[in-house]
Each structure stands twice: as structure tokens, then as C-alpha cells.
Amino acid sequence: MRKGQNRFVAGFLLVPVALYLIFVIWPYIQTFGYSLTDWKGQSQTFSFIGLDNYTALFEDDIFLQAIWHNILFLVFIPVITILLALFFAFMLNAGGRGRAGGVSGVAGSGFYKIVYFFPQVLSLAILAVLFGAVYRSDSGGMLNGFLMRLGLVDENSPVEWLNEPNYVLWALILVVVWHGVGFYLVLFSAAMQAIPRDIYEAALIDGAGRAHTFFRITLPLLWDSVQTAWVYLGIAAMDMFILVSTMTAGEYGGGPDHHSEVMATVMMRNFLLYGRSGYACAMGVVMLLLTLIVSVVMLRATRRERVEF
Amino acid sequence: MSAPLKTASRGESVPTGPTVTKRGPGGPGDERGEGVVLNVFSHGFLALWALLIVLPLLWLVLSAFKTDAQIGGSAFGWPENWTLDVFSRAWDKGIGDYFVNTVIVLVFSVPLTMLFGSMAAYVLARYPFRGNRLLYYFFVAGAMFPVFLALVPLFFMVRRLDMLNTYQGLILVYVAYSLPFTVFFMHAFFRTLPTAVFEAAILDGASHTRTFFQVMLPMAKPGLISVGIFNTLGQWNQFILPTVLMQPQSGDDPERYVLTQGLIQLQQQQGYASDLPVLFAGVTIAMIPMLVVYLSFQRQVQAGLTSATLK
């Protein structure tokens, strides 16, 4: 029996572990090594140059600007998304005051939950095309067309949403928020459903209004989910490759004039366009370090006494 | 969802009829003023967000029926070209091929992900052996690193295996990168399954392999569905891996672009070719399967993605 069992265990693990080693772990490890070389990628010859790539990175203005943009995303995307999602989740789960004296969602919350979630199943490539059309820089763009109707934008000088250095990052943030709110709303809803009804009902008897109920009961009991959402959105804000590379100007995006550059776009351009593989690897390592720092900081910053119920 | 649709709106809460008896403690009279203002505000806001979701999508689909001049003209023109011709044109311009490429990859990658992920998770969850914990953390750790860390060496690894721009290359890479999460999730699931059933099967003379496929795997079906949805959506929408591994071709080699890449390609082409309706038709075609899957399984999709994130 014992012998058969060992063979079974080994047999079941063989393929998954092999695949995982070859395509995930080994490349992860190799990146650190390549980041210390001047590898150009095409030939197999390269030489060890120590930390030169890293020192070059910190003199690369484009990459430094990209880090700064990632930090801006990191601040605004999670805050806006979580606030909206929390507000909607509360309205849909506890905003209504039912006839039965209980606490439930407002009318139509089932419908809203279905509609709000929809952007989540669309690929980011679809979003890129969709919002490319919405942000069109003539009267045919949905946003410009709408603002012209309202008389807020002059017919003859429409706003170049994606080509205006001051607007481009906000235009991108709007897409991410539009995409994410529904998902985090559902995430928070699931957590809210797990809160026992009688806590709400007790609060109701004590005369708590909606705002009170939210800040004193819902939010503390939801803190774990908010923390999860915070970390996930933080990691997404460190990436942003698809939207930036497809919606903004330039080879692998980043335009106008590097005003929307993120680390991922700089890295992919250096790798796929310039063939600077070693340098791109160094960027990958920096992205890893920053992502780890962000996760740890966010988990620490949001740590609270855990409320049991 | 606890029957929110049946909940009466606030206006009806002061009836003199028999429903009054059904009203619970803490009658809402004391906070009516706050309630009405909040209700108007919040309902307005909820409806506005719903419109912000639906309108751009409808507008996009309608744009497929416009002419190029109309699209460049006014955002609010009503389409005049009510023919499905543009959809077949979009299909021929490449969307068809990209669609088929994506389906071919996913038909293999999703089942293989589920199979290998479950196998590893099952063994790690239920068989104590030396190095078990280590191997488990080894799998789970992969979910924490950004994929960008691996891209450059991954490209050369796949090239060395001669699998660049092939279906099997992308399939294997998809499976490998889906393993951390699948193992993590299924591991938790297999641990909760009762040991008694497993022992009964072994006593009845079933081999370990047979017990897994005929007893344990069917019992894990709810978990498999959740992870399956998660993996399907994730792999269908994947963009970075194919961007690196399915390179543009020159000469007679066919493009092996997947749908996400293809849409971006189409966006660039049609911008120059001044045939934007084709682009919008292409996006509509790409959107429909997801819309259908989502609307038919919306409960499972929402539950699957939520539990996927929370675990």
C-alpha cells in the first residue's frame, strides 16, 4: 500500500510541478541573473556588468516618471473605487428599510448588481477600444459630444482627452474605476450578507440612521474585505500595461511625451522594441520590489483590531 | 440576496391596512425625513451609475451600424445602415481567426489547468509526505509576483522549446501561470471533503487514482466550477502573455493572435483604413460570448470571482 501511495503522489505531482518550474519559477529566478548583464537578447553572448543596469535605471528620467505615475495611480484608483463600491454595496444591501422592519437593499438592487458587474467580464482590450471611442478628440467622441451638447466644450476646439498631459492620467483612472466598481461592490456585498441581520435590527431599534449604521456597524465588520480590495487594487495600479499601451500615443503607449508612462510600458518597449533584455529584467526586478513594498505597506496601514461576530 | 426586489419602497410604509401588523419594531416614522432625501439621492445615484455602464456599451454597438462619416460627425447621430454586412466584414478582417485561435487555446488550456491544478492540490491537501508544506508554499508563492518579472526569460524559454507563436506554447504557459491560484483554491476545497468517503472507496478496493477521479473530484464540483469560471475569464482576457509569445508574423506564416490582441490590431488598422464600423462590429462580436455567459451564469460568475478573491 505504502509503496503504491508514494508512486501515486509522485505521479500526480510530476506534470504540474514540471510545468510550473519550467515556465514560472525558473524564469522568475533567471530574471535576477539577466538583470546583471548587458544582454541584448538576440545573441547568446552577454557579459556580466554588475549593478550597472540598476544605476542606469535611476538616471533614466522616463522610468522615474513612470514610477511617479504608478504612484499616482496607486493613490487614486483604490480610494475612488473602494469608496464608490462601499457606498453602492451599502445602498444595495442595507440601504432600504423594509416593511417587515428588517434591513434590506433598496428596490431593484438585484438588477443593479447584475448591471454594475458587467464591465468586469469584458476584457481590458475591449475597454481600450470602447474608451478610445468615448475619448475621441472630435465631436464624434461620446464625452466631447456630450459636453458640447451641454455647451461646456467649444465645438471648434474639442478636448484631446488622451493627448492632453493634464487629463490623460485621469482619463485612464476613470476607465479603471468604471471597470472595477462593480466587482468590489459584489465583493463587499458578499461580506455584508454575512453580517447577522439582528445586529442591524438592534441598531434600528436603538434609532440608528443609515449613516450611523454604516460607520458603526457595516464598515468595521467589513474591514477584512476592504483590506483585500485595497491590496488587489494596489497591485493593479502597479501594472496598467494594457490600458496605457493601447489607449495612449506612442510605441507601447506612454504618450503624449511620456506623460502617461508606467513602469510596465517602459519595460516592454525596452524589451520588445529596443531588445535591451538585461535592462528590461532590471525593471522587472524593481517592479517586483515596489509591488512587494506596496502590499506590505497597505496591509500594515489598514491593520485593525479584528472584529469577530 | 434576500428578496430585495420584493421590498416595498418607502412610500408604502404607512398603510392602514392589515400589512401594519407585519411591521417590525422600530417603525420607520422617526427617520422619515432623512429617508426621503437619502432615497431620492441614492436612487438617483444608483440609476446614474447603471446608465454610465450601459450607455457607452449600447453606443458602441450602435456605432457598428453607422457609416464612417457619421462616426466622425456627431456622437449622437442615429445609425442609418441597418445591415449585418459589417459584422461579416469584421469577421473576415481577422476577428474570425482571432476568435478561433482563442477558442482553440482555451479548449485545451482550461481543462488542463483544472486537471493539473486539482491533481497537485489533491495530493498536497490529503497525503502527508516530506516536503509537502514546502511544495505547497512553492506553488502559492507564484501568485504574488508580477508577471512582468518573468517575461524576458519566459520569452527565450519558449523560443528555445521552439514553441513561440504556437498554440501548444501558449496553452502550456497559460496552464503554468494559472496553477498557483488553482492549487491554492482547490487545496482549501479538498481539505474540507470528508475522509470517511475516501476510506470507504479505498476499502472497496479502488486505487488512489480511481478514488480521485470517481469519488473525490465529483465531490469537489462546486469548487471546480468557481475556479473554472475564474480561469476561463482570466485566460480569455489575457493580454500580456500572448503579446510576448504570439509575435506578429511576416511572410506566409499565419498570425496566431488571440482575440484581445486582434482587437487592438484591428483598432490600429481601421483607424488608418477609415473603416471604424468594422472595429465596433468586431468589439461587439468579442463582447457577445462574454455577455451571454455572464447573463446565463451571473450568480455563479459573481460568486466564483468573489470567493476566488477572498480565499
Automatic annotation (TrEMBL), chain A:
Residue span(s) of domain ABC transmembrane type-1: 67-298
* UniProt topology in membrane: Multi-pass membrane protein
In terms of one coarse class, where is the protein primarily found?
Answer: membrane
For this entry, list what GO says about its biological process.
transmembrane transport
Source organism, top-level taxon: Bacteria
Task: Return the GO cellular component terms, semicolon-separated.
Answer: plasma membrane
Q: Where are the transmembrane segments?
A: 7-29, 67-93, 114-135, 167-187, 229-250, 277-299
Q: Does the keyword Calcium apply?
A: no
Listed InterPro entries: ABC_transporter_permease, MetI-like, MetI-like_sf
Keyword terms of this UniProt record: Cell membrane, Membrane, Transmembrane, Transmembrane helix, Transport
Where can this protein be found? Cell membrane
Q: Which Pfam families match?
A: BPD_transp_1
The record's comment on protein family reads: Belongs to the binding-protein-dependent transport system permease family.
The name of this protein is Sugar ABC transporter permease
UniProtKB/TrEMBL annotation, chain B:
Keyword Protein biosynthesis annotated:
no
Any Gene Ontology biological process: transmembrane transport
Where in or outside the cell it occurs: the entry states: Cell membrane
Q: Which InterPro entries match?
A: MetI-like (IPR000515), MetI-like_sf (IPR035906)
Where are its TM segments located? 40-62, 98-122, 134-158, 170-190, 276-297
User: One cellular component GO annotation, for this chain's record?
Assistant: plasma membrane
Q: Which SUPFAM superfamilies match?
A: MetI-like
Q: Is Cell membrane among the key words of this record?
A: yes
Domain ABC transmembrane type-1 as annotated: residue spans: 99-297
Q: How does it sit in the membrane?
A: Multi-pass membrane protein
Please, which domain of life does this record's source organism belong to?
Answer: Bacteria
- Predominant location category: membrane
CDD domains in the record, alphabetically? TM_PBP2 (cd06261)
List keywords of the entry alphabetically. Answer: Cell membrane, Membrane, Transmembrane, Transmembrane helix, Transport
Q: Where is this region: Disordered?
A: 1-29
Protein family (similarity comment): Belongs to the binding-protein-dependent transport system permease family.
Q: What is this protein called?
A: Carbohydrate ABC transporter permease
Look up and give the organism this protein is from.
Answer: Streptomyces phaeolivaceus
